[in-house]
Specification:
The chain contains 6 helices and 40 strands. By secondary structure, it is mainly beta. It starts with a helix and ends with a helix.
């Protein structure tokens, strides 16, 4: 009994004897310092180049003074963590290997890494910036991650790669280049918030990840903003998608999600694409200046849409079906910039029901060659007849309580400047987004 008590006291007292040690920028010094460190030690890396790869297999802190660089020399992952309570902060981390099979990374957090913290680092030119692969309760915060710029985007790695990392928080990171900003695969109960992502394929690419939060993120000039797939019970709120090429938000086999207060604007494709997604609440978003405001397909049902603003999209809604779908809830519909609305009682709700699509829209979607007839008297007569006699309209979207004013979602000035600097997208490029949506 006494022996157990002494052992417990020693374990509790361990961190009290932790030391701060300065590690010089000399060949082999960092590996030697880690090998000789006691649990809880703080290793302060002096300015200069420190050799990697390095395995952190005990609880300790790596702090970098200004100018401290850990360079993997193009071999494996620069820093690999397998121990609990490791903190990596203030470093420049570069020079990982190039193996996708091994997921060569700037920082790799593996099973056994409990409560790791990776914050305030600069990660340049690694295949993957930070790989969270089996770690628990990790926090990755305020890092600058600049990936590679291979000629083929799909040959690059992700800024942050997540697999089976419950309790993860990824916040306030700035991620650019590489393939996807944040790629999540089979990981539940995670939080991704207030990250900024540019010049990527997808800002956030999300698969088989449930009960998680995607909030306050900024996607600028990517091929696709938020590709959310095969997941349920997501909270997707207060995100920005600005000048993203194919889609701003895509829900592909996503169920029971809340999608709210997001701004998507300026894309050449679809502000939002809903593919075989059910029972989602989509409210108070602003979809502006896209080729299509929102595209529903593949039998997406029992979704609630209310309070959204559809502003200046070339096609506000693409929804093909014989069933009539109501897009309002408890007397509150959506704002439509092309609805010639009036409000005689001044309650903020338009006095007339709005139908964003008519029979000719359905014909044009299914038979694109019919576009040659758009200006013909016959087509104009059909559209006049449907406007005058709504009972002749086919199935599709109906908003019985359209709003008179749109929701406004402000964009910070510095973000608006980055948005304005995105060059025009070339026309006719192949889109990865529609390929993904079909799988």
């Amino acid at each position: 009994m006494m022996r157990c008590l002494v052992l417990a006291l020693c374990l509790l007292a361990g961190p009290l004897f932790a030391a701060e040690r300065t590690v010089p920028a000399e060949a082999g010094a960092l590996k030697a310092a880690v090998a000789g460190a006691a649990p809880g030690d703080v290793l302060i890396l002096a300015p200069g180049r420190h050799e990697g790869p390095v395995l952190l297999d005990r609880p300790l802190t790596l702090l970098g003074r200004e100018g401290a660089v850990v360079d993997g020399g193009g071999r494996g992952s620069v820093l690999t963590v397998t121990a609990p309570d490791v903190r990596i902060a203030g470093l420049e981390i570069r020079g990982s290997g190039s193996s996708h099979e091994e997921i060569d990374s700037g920082v790799r957090l593996l099973k056994g890494a409990l409560r790791p913290v990776v914050e305030d680092n600069r990660l340049f030119g690694n295949l993957v910036g930070v790989d969270i692969h089996g770690a628990t309760d990790a926090r990755v915060s305020r890092n600058l991650i600049v990936g590679r710029e291979n000629a083929r985007m799909n040959a690059r790695g992700n800024g942050i790669y997540v697999w089976n990392a419950p309790g993860l928080i990824v916040e306030e990171n700035d991620i650019s280049l590489g393939r996807d900003g944040i790629f999540v695969n089979v990981s539940d109960r995670n939080i991704f918030r207030n990250n900024r992502m540019r010049n990527l394929r997808f800002a956030i690419h999300y698969m088989y990840a449930h009960h998680s939060e995607v909030t306050g993120n900024i996607s600028i000039g990517n091929h696709l903003g938020y590709a959310l797939m095969y997941s349920h019970h997501l909270t997707v709120t207060d995100n920005l998608s600005l000048r993203d090429r194919d889609h701003g938000v895509m829900l592909n086999y996503v169920n029971n999600a809340e999608v709210a207060r997001n701004l998507v604007r300026g894309g050449t494709g679809k502000c939002t694409f809903i593919y075989n997604a059910h029972r989602n609440v989509i409210h108070d978003n602003r979809f502006e200046g896209c080729g299509t405001g929102i595209h529903f397909t593949a039998g997406s049902e029992r979704n609630m849409l209310t309070g959204n603003a559809f502003v200046g999209n070339r096609t506000q809604v693409k929804h093909v079906g014989t069933k009539l779908v109501e897009w309002s809830h408890e007397g509150r519909g959506n704002f439509w910039s092309d609805h010639p609305a009036y409000d005689l009682d001044g309650d903020g709700i338009a006095d007339a029901t709005f139908r964003p699509n008519d029979l000719m829209d359905h014909i044009l979607w299914s038979q694109p060659a019919a576009a040659l007839l758009v200006g013909s008297p016959a087509v104009q007569l059909i559209r006049w007849s449907q406007a005058s006699f709504p009972a002749t309209l086919p199935g599709g979207v109906r908003d019985s309580h359209p709003l008179m004013a749109p929701i406004d979602i402000p964009v910070p000035d510095d973000v608006a400047r980055l948005e304005a600097a995105v060059p025009p997208w070339p026309q006719g490029e192949t889109s990865d987004a529609d390929t993904l949506a079909s799988h």
